[in-house]
Amino acid sequence: MYVKKLKHRFSLILAASALGVIVLSGCGTSASAPINGDFQDRGRQLFNAKCGTCHVMAAAASVGVQGPNLDTAFAAAREVGMDEDTVRGIVHAQVKRPGKSQTNFPGISMPANIVEGNDLDDVAAYVARYAGVPGAKPPIAPGEGPGAQVYANNGCGSCHVLAAAESSGVVGPNLDEVIPGTPRAEIEQSILDPNAMQTAGYENAVMPDRFDTIPKDQLQQLIDFLVTSTATNGKP
């Protein structure tokens, strides 16, 4: 009875928040895999590629603001006793049957059954493991040098493909394609003032302008990472 009340309470919280637009694709693995197993990697990739453009979640270094902050929502639920299995069930339920209320996020909706099967299992397991957990932070990032961690910590992978970082976001340009041959000054400008130059085909993409808060040394580390990790791609 207590668990049912918690589920109902949190369903109302997420329904009121509308949960943003989540678009997931690809094939997943078993949600019963251990924490260091495939579901974590696959769930993180799926979340970063699609969910992170709408939701904040510290463990994913995602910065989307069109939907609710998942850490804030699930922290409240965990504080009243909701366990990981219940959180996973809530994520399943909300993806399959999204709440109708859009009080806090007008104009934002999430279609029902946007992801199913193993993909949903992986994302739900990933969110259940980390959302709202005190001290949660991104894993050590793939890639060489400190710039790889800067890339991960700032949620760049939520919007961009970059093979060295194992990121697969598609909201913004594929960095493996656009970085080679681009002068460092232009790369820096595109980070600090994203609207100054727009890549063809992405004129309607909105890149947050908050990256001017990245410390100067980290910004240079990020640019180093982007340049060196795509250096072998070349441009025709």
Q: How are the SSEs ordered, and which strands pair?
A:
Elements (H helix, E strand, L loop, with lengths): L1 H16 L20 H12 L6 E2 L4 E2 L6 H10 L4 H13 L20 H14 L15 H8 L7 E2 L4 E2 L6 H4 L5 H9 L23 H15 L6
Antiparallel strand pairs: 1-2, 3-4
Task: Please describe what this structure looks like.
The chain has nine helices and four strands. It has two domains: 2-130, Cytochrome c-like domain (Cytochrome Bc1 Complex, Chain D, domain 2); 146-230, Cytochrome c-like domain (Cytochrome Bc1 Complex, Chain D, domain 2, Orthogonal Bundle). The chain has 236 residues and is mainly alpha-helical. Residues 1-38 have low confidence and may be disordered. The chain starts with a helix and ends in a 6-residue tail after the last helix. The chain is globular and about 50 Å long. The chain has a two-stranded antiparallel ribbon with strand order 1-2. A two-stranded antiparallel sheet has the order 3-4.
Please state the average pLDDT score: 76
Q: Just name the CATH architecture of the largest domain.
A: Orthogonal Bundle
Number of helices: 9
Largest sheet: 2 strands, antiparallel
The figure for the number of domains is 2
Distance between the termini: 64 Å
What low-confidence regions span 5 or more consecutive residues with pLDDT below 50? 1-38
Name of the top-level CATH class of the largest domain? Mainly Alpha
* CATH-assigned fold name of the largest domain: Cytochrome Bc1 Complex, Chain D, domain 2
- By secondary-structure content and strand pairing, the structural class works out as mainly alpha
Instruction: Please bin the fraction of helical residues.
Output: 40-55%
Approximately how much beta-strand content do the residues carry?
under 5%
Order of helices and strands: HHEEHHHHEEHHH
Number of strands: 4
